[in-house]
Description:
Pfam families: SpoIIE
Structural class: alpha+beta
GO molecular function, one term: protein serine/threonine phosphatase activity
Number of helices: 8
Oligomer: single chain
EC number: 3.1.3.16
Largest sheet: 7 strands, antiparallel
Number of domains: 1
Mean pLDDT: 83
Helix content: 25-40%
Keywords: Hydrolase, Magnesium, Manganese, Metal-binding, Protein phosphatase
CATH architecture: 4-Layer Sandwich
Order of helices and strands: HHEEEEHHEEEEEEEEEHHHHE
Strand content: 15-25%
Low-confidence stretches: 15-77
Number of strands: 14
Amino acid sequence: MNEYLDNARRNIQRTMNSSYHSLSEVASMASSLAASTGSQLYSSLMSLKAQVIPSANEPISPVPSASELGTSTIPSSSQQIRLISVVCGFPKDIGMYPDYARGQFGEDAWFRTSTSKADALGVADGVGGWRVYGIDPGQFSRFLMRSCERLAHSADFESTRPEQLLARAYCNLLEQKKPILGSCTACVLTLHRDSGILYAANIGDSGLLVIRNGAIVCRSLEQQHHFNTPYQLAVPPPGQGLNVLTDGPECAALLEFDMQIGDILILATDGVYDNVSEDLLLQVLTHASGVTDPVKLQMFANSVALMARSLSFNPNHESPFTQNARRHNIDAPGGKPDDITVVLASVV
């Protein structure tokens, strides 16, 4: 396990110790470094490359721009705090999802956006069991996150009510003329700029952690009906409502927390939390405290995603999922292969 942590540390330190003359040169180096780190970690698995994700209105380009790396496009006053956010992830099955799709890693989906009042982030994890019925689980999660992103810019968006944003996006799903069937877990959050308060609504086993001064000071509440069966929003096939597990948006666990400059926020799907312990996350992300350069922050996100990806395929890894299964008298050794989505943000 120390091997993964050492790789992550070298990855981060190499970037932080380098001095560059322009942001485009930094971004180019960050992209190539992500590729080389992936080669080191996955030489025995497959050749992977960490993806630096563009923002909503930017095209994909070989050299990421500042906006592609997650800087907020909303100017902030000296009285306001804001988020600098970046994203990294991998689909579980690279062969099934060979092409990049904005806002999606396999069956996982995500969004991030900013308004004049708040920053908003979200992740959703499509429930893979639908695939045996010929339903793409990623379509459900992707539509939900895209709806959240769009609705965050509506005139009546309440930046202190992420649960309302989630509920409206879910209703949007239900109202489609051509039903979008499936289910997903979801975690949506907003950071109110003036008050500095973080608001979150979580359904299921995706979630967030806030790291401050080397300690986890806030975490979302995981919701499980029973082991490996999280709460989930769902749209069942017609006539099958009684046979499908469905939890409404009103079931979301709500959270409020006063954020401070220098805090690090990680929002991720269970592909991260099932494979990377909180201790490992702390050891890597504590060093991200106070980072305002999106390129450097991107390297921290890459390191977490790469570590989660590698550990998920390690049959000898004593994963959090394995430990939890053991508490339920279930034998599930090793990592848990899954889609990986990491949204990492620094409060500035």
